[in-house]
Protein backbone atom coordinates (compact mmCIF):
# COMPACT_ATOMS: atom_id res chain seq x y z
CA UNK A 1 0.00 0.00 0.00
CA UNK A 2 1.33 3.42 -0.92
CA UNK A 3 1.87 6.29 1.48
CA UNK A 4 0.52 9.82 1.51
CA UNK A 5 3.45 12.15 0.70
CA UNK A 6 3.28 15.92 0.92
CA UNK A 7 5.71 17.76 -1.37
CA UNK A 8 6.44 21.39 -0.43
CA UNK A 9 8.48 22.92 -3.26
CA UNK A 10 8.12 26.45 -4.65
CA UNK A 11 9.43 25.44 -8.07
CA UNK A 12 6.22 24.21 -9.71
CA UNK A 13 8.00 22.18 -12.39
CA UNK A 14 10.25 20.52 -9.82
CA UNK A 15 7.28 19.73 -7.59
CA UNK A 16 5.47 18.16 -10.54
CA UNK A 17 8.52 16.04 -11.41
CA UNK A 18 8.74 14.76 -7.83
CA UNK A 19 5.00 14.05 -7.82
CA UNK A 20 5.21 11.96 -10.98
CA UNK A 21 8.10 9.86 -9.71
CA UNK A 22 6.44 9.24 -6.35
CA UNK A 23 3.10 8.36 -7.92
CA UNK A 24 4.88 5.74 -10.04
CA UNK A 25 5.87 4.17 -6.70
CA UNK A 26 2.20 3.94 -5.78
CA UNK A 27 2.09 6.89 -3.38
CA UNK A 28 -0.64 9.49 -3.11
CA UNK A 29 0.99 12.89 -3.47
CA UNK A 30 -0.10 16.44 -2.69
CA UNK A 31 1.98 19.44 -3.74
CA UNK A 32 2.12 22.93 -2.23
CA UNK A 33 4.36 25.84 -3.14
CA UNK A 34 4.89 27.91 0.00
CA UNK A 35 5.59 27.26 3.66
CA UNK A 36 2.23 28.48 4.96
CA UNK A 37 0.40 26.11 2.63
CA UNK A 38 2.69 23.27 3.76
CA UNK A 39 1.77 23.89 7.40
CA UNK A 40 -1.94 24.13 6.61
CA UNK A 41 -1.94 20.94 4.53
CA UNK A 42 0.12 18.95 7.07
CA UNK A 43 -2.25 19.97 9.86
CA UNK A 44 -5.35 19.19 7.82
CA UNK A 45 -4.20 15.74 6.75
CA UNK A 46 -1.07 14.45 8.43
CA UNK A 47 1.23 13.04 5.74
CA UNK A 48 3.20 9.83 6.08
CA UNK A 49 6.23 11.79 4.85
CA UNK A 50 7.06 15.38 3.97
CA UNK A 51 9.43 16.35 1.15
CA UNK A 52 10.36 19.90 2.13
CA UNK A 53 12.31 22.54 0.19
CA UNK A 54 14.28 24.95 2.37
CA UNK A 55 13.87 28.10 0.25
CA UNK A 56 10.14 28.87 0.10
CA UNK A 57 8.02 32.03 0.32
CA UNK A 58 5.87 33.05 3.32
CA UNK A 59 7.47 30.53 5.73
CA UNK A 60 10.81 28.98 4.86
CA UNK A 61 11.41 25.25 5.06
CA UNK A 62 13.56 25.41 8.20
CA UNK A 63 10.75 27.11 10.11
CA UNK A 64 8.21 24.66 8.70
CA UNK A 65 10.37 21.79 9.92
CA UNK A 66 10.81 23.32 13.35
CA UNK A 67 7.07 23.99 13.78
CA UNK A 68 5.92 20.59 12.54
CA UNK A 69 8.55 18.74 14.54
CA UNK A 70 7.05 20.22 17.72
CA UNK A 71 3.65 18.87 16.67
CA UNK A 72 4.37 15.45 15.16
CA UNK A 73 6.97 12.83 14.26
CA UNK A 74 6.27 12.92 10.51
CA UNK A 75 9.45 11.96 8.61
CA UNK A 76 10.96 14.97 6.84
CA UNK A 77 13.23 14.84 3.78
CA UNK A 78 14.66 18.32 3.20
CA UNK A 79 15.78 19.66 -0.18
CA UNK A 80 18.14 22.58 -0.51
CA UNK A 81 20.40 24.41 -2.91
CA UNK A 82 22.61 25.28 0.07
CA UNK A 83 25.42 22.74 0.09
CA UNK A 84 27.49 23.89 3.08
CA UNK A 85 27.91 21.51 5.98
CA UNK A 86 26.57 24.07 8.46
CA UNK A 87 23.32 24.36 6.50
CA UNK A 88 22.92 20.59 6.46
CA UNK A 89 23.60 20.29 10.17
CA UNK A 90 21.12 23.06 10.94
CA UNK A 91 18.38 21.18 9.11
CA UNK A 92 19.18 17.97 10.98
CA UNK A 93 19.31 19.82 14.27
CA UNK A 94 15.81 21.19 13.65
CA UNK A 95 14.53 17.64 13.23
CA UNK A 96 14.87 16.71 9.55
CA UNK A 97 15.34 12.96 9.04
CA UNK A 98 17.36 13.24 5.83
CA UNK A 99 18.77 15.88 3.52
CA UNK A 100 19.39 16.15 -0.23
CA UNK A 101 21.19 18.97 -2.01
CA UNK A 102 20.23 20.24 -5.44
CA UNK A 103 20.66 19.14 -8.12
CA UNK A 104 19.66 15.60 -7.25
CA UNK A 105 18.47 12.50 -9.04
CA UNK A 106 14.69 11.96 -8.80
CA UNK A 107 15.40 8.22 -8.58
CA UNK A 108 17.64 8.82 -5.57
CA UNK A 109 14.92 10.93 -3.98
CA UNK A 110 12.44 8.09 -4.45
CA UNK A 111 14.94 5.69 -2.84
CA UNK A 112 15.39 8.05 0.13
CA UNK A 113 11.61 8.29 0.53
CA UNK A 114 11.35 4.50 0.44
CA UNK A 115 14.00 4.17 3.16
CA UNK A 116 12.38 6.76 5.43
CA UNK A 117 8.95 5.19 5.08
CA UNK A 118 10.39 1.75 5.85
CA UNK A 119 12.10 3.14 8.95
CA UNK A 120 8.90 4.85 10.11
CA UNK A 121 6.92 1.63 9.62
CA UNK A 122 9.44 -0.33 11.70
CA UNK A 123 9.26 2.27 14.45
CA UNK A 124 5.49 2.00 14.51
CA UNK A 125 5.47 -1.81 14.59
CA UNK A 126 8.37 -2.56 16.92
CA UNK A 127 7.79 -2.87 20.62
CA UNK A 128 11.37 -2.46 21.75
CA UNK A 129 11.88 -2.80 25.51
CA UNK A 130 12.51 0.34 27.50
CA UNK A 131 16.27 1.03 27.61
CA UNK A 132 18.00 2.17 30.82
CA UNK A 133 21.44 3.49 31.65
CA UNK A 134 21.40 4.57 35.27
CA UNK A 135 18.65 7.17 35.65
CA UNK A 136 18.52 7.82 31.90
CA UNK A 137 15.56 6.04 30.31
CA UNK A 138 14.89 5.70 26.57
CA UNK A 139 11.44 4.43 25.56
CA UNK A 140 11.52 3.60 21.81
CA UNK A 141 7.81 2.75 21.60
CA UNK A 142 6.77 6.11 23.07
CA UNK A 143 9.74 7.95 21.54
CA UNK A 144 10.47 9.45 24.95
CA UNK A 145 13.62 10.17 26.95
CA UNK A 146 13.75 10.93 30.66
CA UNK A 147 16.63 11.75 33.00
CA UNK A 148 16.03 11.49 36.74
CA UNK A 149 12.32 11.27 35.91
CA UNK A 150 12.26 14.54 33.93
CA UNK A 151 11.31 14.39 30.26
CA UNK A 152 13.95 15.44 27.73
CA UNK A 153 12.91 16.69 24.28
CA UNK A 154 15.11 15.27 21.50
CA UNK A 155 15.15 15.71 17.74
CA UNK A 156 14.74 12.49 15.73
CA UNK A 157 18.48 12.36 15.04
CA UNK A 158 19.38 12.87 18.69
CA UNK A 159 16.89 10.20 19.71
CA UNK A 160 18.37 7.68 17.28
CA UNK A 161 21.88 8.30 18.63
CA UNK A 162 20.70 7.89 22.21
CA UNK A 163 18.62 4.82 21.39
CA UNK A 164 21.61 3.10 19.76
CA UNK A 165 23.94 3.85 22.67
CA UNK A 166 21.36 3.03 25.34
CA UNK A 167 20.75 -0.37 23.77
CA UNK A 168 24.43 -1.21 24.42
CA UNK A 169 25.56 0.62 27.61
CA UNK A 170 29.31 0.70 27.94
CA UNK A 171 29.93 -0.31 24.31
CA UNK A 172 31.97 2.10 22.21
CA UNK A 173 30.62 3.10 18.80
CA UNK A 174 32.67 4.87 16.15
CA UNK A 175 31.30 7.96 14.44
CA UNK A 176 30.94 5.93 11.23
CA UNK A 177 28.84 3.30 13.01
CA UNK A 178 26.57 5.94 14.52
CA UNK A 179 26.29 7.80 11.21
CA UNK A 180 25.35 4.56 9.43
CA UNK A 181 22.63 3.98 12.02
CA UNK A 182 21.32 7.50 11.43
CA UNK A 183 21.33 8.06 7.69
CA UNK A 184 23.49 5.48 5.97
CA UNK A 185 26.61 6.67 4.20
CA UNK A 186 25.29 9.93 2.79
CA UNK A 187 27.79 11.72 0.59
CA UNK A 188 26.57 15.11 1.82
CA UNK A 189 26.86 14.43 5.56
CA UNK A 190 30.08 13.95 7.49
CA UNK A 191 30.95 12.53 10.88
CA UNK A 192 30.58 16.06 12.25
CA UNK A 193 26.85 15.35 12.21
CA UNK A 194 27.42 12.86 15.03
CA UNK A 195 29.49 15.38 17.01
CA UNK A 196 26.70 17.95 16.76
CA UNK A 197 24.10 15.46 17.99
CA UNK A 198 26.37 14.46 20.87
CA UNK A 199 27.01 18.10 21.81
CA UNK A 200 23.28 18.85 21.83
CA UNK A 201 22.47 15.70 23.80
CA UNK A 202 25.03 16.59 26.45
CA UNK A 203 23.29 19.92 26.95
CA UNK A 204 20.08 18.03 27.62
CA UNK A 205 21.10 14.98 29.65
CA UNK A 206 24.27 16.00 31.51
CA UNK A 207 24.35 17.92 34.82
CA UNK A 208 27.49 19.69 33.53
CA UNK A 209 27.79 19.38 29.72
CA UNK A 210 31.50 20.28 29.70
CA UNK A 211 32.22 17.46 32.16
CA UNK A 212 29.92 14.68 30.93
CA UNK A 213 29.25 11.67 33.11
CA UNK A 214 26.74 9.88 30.85
CA UNK A 215 27.61 10.39 27.20
CA UNK A 216 31.35 9.84 27.10
CA UNK A 217 34.09 10.27 24.52
CA UNK A 218 36.58 7.46 24.08
CA UNK A 219 39.53 9.23 22.53
CA UNK A 220 40.55 8.01 19.09
CA UNK A 221 37.54 5.69 18.89
CA UNK A 222 34.12 7.27 19.36
CA UNK A 223 31.36 7.53 21.96
CA UNK A 224 29.67 5.37 24.57
CA UNK A 225 26.87 5.71 27.09
CA UNK A 226 27.93 4.93 30.65
CA UNK A 227 25.90 2.15 32.27
CA UNK A 228 26.09 4.12 35.52
CA UNK A 229 27.17 7.80 35.61
CA UNK A 230 30.34 8.53 37.54
CA UNK A 231 31.12 11.80 39.29
CA UNK A 232 34.71 12.06 38.03
CA UNK A 233 34.89 10.59 34.51
CA UNK A 234 38.39 9.84 33.26
CA UNK A 235 37.50 9.19 29.63
CA UNK A 236 35.01 11.96 28.97
CA UNK A 237 35.44 15.26 27.24
Task: Quickly list its features.
single chain; 237 residues; alpha/beta; five-stranded parallel sheet; four-stranded antiparallel sheet; 8 helices; 12 strands; elongated; disordered C terminus
Instruction: Tell me the β content.
Output: 15-25%
Mean pLDDT: 85
Query: DSSP helix count?
Result: 8
pLDDT < 50 runs, ≥5 residues: 233-237
Structural class: alpha/beta
Summarize the amount of helix as a percent range.
Answer: 40-55%
- Taken in chain order, the helices and strands follow as EHEHEHEHEHEEEEHEHHEE
Number of strands: 12
- Major sheet characteristics: 5 strands, parallel
Going across the major beta sheet, what is the strand order? Answer: 2-1-3-4-5
The quaternary state of the protein chains shown equals single chain
The end-to-end span amounts to 47 Å
The global form is elongated
Q: What integer value in Å does the Rg equal?
A: 18 Å
How would you describe what is shown here?
By secondary structure, the protein is α/β, with parallel strands linked by helices. The protein has eight helices and twelve strands. It has helices at about 10-25, 35-45, 60-70, 85-95, 105-125, 155-165, 175-185, 190-205, and strands spanning about 5-10, 30, 50-55, 75-80, 100, 130-135, 135-140, 145, 150, 175, 215-220, 220-225. It has a five-stranded parallel sheet with strand order 2-1-3-4-5, sandwiched between helices. Strands 6-7-8-9 form a four-stranded antiparallel sheet, covered by helices on one side. The protein is elongated.
Amino acid sequence: MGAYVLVAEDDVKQAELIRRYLEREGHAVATVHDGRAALDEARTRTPDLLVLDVMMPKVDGLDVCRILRAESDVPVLMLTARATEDDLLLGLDLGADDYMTKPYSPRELVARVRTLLRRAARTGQDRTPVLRAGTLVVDPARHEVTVDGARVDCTPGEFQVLELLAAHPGQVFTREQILSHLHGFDRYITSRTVDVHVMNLRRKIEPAPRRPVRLLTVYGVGYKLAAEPTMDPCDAS
